[in-house]
Amino acid sequence: MDSADVLALxxxxxxxxxxxxxxxxxxxxxxxxxxxxxxxAPVLILEYDSTxxxxxxxxxxxxxxxxxxxxxxxxxxxxxDEPGRRLxxxxxxxxxxxxxxxxxxxxxxxxxxxxxxxxxxxxxQVVRIDRLAGGSLDKATRDAFFRSAVSAxxxxxxxxxxxxxxxxxxxxxxxxxxxxxxxxxxxxPILVDSRYRxxxxxxxxxxxxxxxxxxxxxxxxxxxxxxxxxxAGRRILEETKMQAVLITRGSRGMALFVPGAPTVHIPIxxxxxxxxxxxxxxxxxxxxxxxxxAGATFExxxxxxxxxxxxxxxxxxxxxVSAAELRDAVARDT
Length: 334
Hints:
This protein is 36% helix and 26% strand. It contains ten helices and 15 strands. The strands form three sheets. A nine-stranded mixed sheet has the order 6-4-1-10-11-12-13-14-15, with helices on both faces. The model has no long low-confidence stretch (mean pLDDT 92).
């Protein structure tokens, strides 16, 4: 497999549609300049500069799919509030927001990051404040979300499930969506990115846990032990009955596990001097899902995802990677 294969895959991404189902989050970035140390406590006083709200979670995955040339149908539940409105406004033009369910009884989840720096220095994150979705998820809202999710899946070439633990998606709901696709004669790849319930999802196409999520799920420590990594990947394959498991390892790259095939270790693309990992998992999952929607093999899709992940961690904040950036990265890597 060479660079020509990856470049051909990038050219095949436009026109592919992915249903992104799950927890959409409003990622809020508040920027300030360091003024002085407070007299009241040993903390920095920041002079407010600006605020930016971008889609996080499922919204970030959808934006990345669109930035890479595909299109996305975003099925999620957000509030009828200002953060929800700003989240929708920040969606890429190739993200269809019609499957979004807006609830007057449930607020939008907001993750606020406070970033500080001087005039001539990069802003660094100093604290994060999470405001989780408040209000009940009533039966009418759940039913509306499920209908939207199924409709989006039936119109797509692949399904990406983003489970950030918000209580919206679950293994049972994903199993029902899979059943609806099967009944409709529309079997497409279904991939899941689950923060806390990795082992609860079963029989899907693939999952993309990071190394720390694998360690938490299996109660192990991988560190740099190749044998422990190998056992962990094979165990996840066995327990989840996935067709593939892609473990992201930060500066150590990625490891792809497929039943009956040798493990493929993919070294990190670019520098290991990472600027920001915010939302990097969403980008990797978006690239992998879009590639499979375009008919790629697991290995080819994983290599594309590796380029996307290597590019996005060089950017500040919740970011996306474009098809042009992917082409340039592949050309530089030959």
